[in-house]
């Protein structure tokens, strides 16, 4: 009996820390919360390319991925599956962070641990 593929959504999260400050973006949707750059990997795109693209789109800076921190996989009630990849990264140059909003995010900023409390 042939098996039916499970619809799978792949989501990447990019954790960028420089000088004890973490990169956060302000979301353009859902009440505009702040969080680390993240998003869906597009069809035909590798997980690594998706992570680099999301950082550039949401924070405005090119990053180099340093490592894979965690992978999570879980099923959703609608029968689909989610796979989440958490990467560490660092900026490749001194490109300034995004300060003007678009469909990806409103802006980006560097935050200390105290800023997040």
Description:
This protein has 117 residues and is mainly beta. It is built from two helices and seven strands, in the order ββββαβββα. Strands 1, 2, 3, 4, 5, 6 and 7 form a seven-stranded mixed β-sheet that branches. Strand 2 (21-27) and strand 3 (34-35) form a beta hairpin. The protein starts with 7 loop residues before the first strand and ends with a helix. The model has no long low-confidence stretch (mean pLDDT 95).
What are the key terms here?
117 residues, mainly beta, 46% strand, seven-stranded mixed β-sheet, 2 helices
Which secondary structure elements does this structure contain, and how are they paired or packed?
Elements: E1 8-18, E2 21-27, E3 34-35, E4 38-40, H1 47-59, E5 63-75, E6 81-91, E7 105-111, H2 113-116
Parallel strand pairs: 1-6
Antiparallel strand pairs: 1-2, 1-4, 2-3, 2-7, 5-6
**DSSP strand tally:** 7
N-to-C series of helices and strands: EEEEHEEEH
The Cα radius of gyration reads 15 Å
Taken as a percent bin, the fraction of beta residues is: over 45%
Q: Tell me the major beta sheet.
A: 7 strands, mixed
Specify the structural class: mainly beta
Mean pLDDT: 95
| Measured distance between first and last alpha carbons | 54 Å
């Amino acid at each position: 009996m042939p098996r039916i593929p499970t619809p799978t959504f792949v989501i990447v999260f990019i954790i960028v820390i420089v000088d004890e400050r973490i990169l956060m973006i302000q979301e353009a949707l859902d009440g505009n919360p702040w969080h680390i750059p993240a998003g869906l990997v597009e069809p035909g795109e590798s997980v690594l390319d998706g992570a680099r693209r999301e950082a550039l789109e949401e924070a405005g800076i090119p990053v180099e991925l340093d490592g894979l921190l965690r992978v999570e996989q879980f099923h959703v009630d609608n029968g689909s599956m989610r796979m989440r990849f958490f990467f560490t990264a660092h900026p490749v140059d001194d490109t300034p962070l995004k300060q003007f909003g678009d469909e990806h995010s409103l802006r980006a900023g560097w935050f200390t641990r105290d800023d997040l409390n």
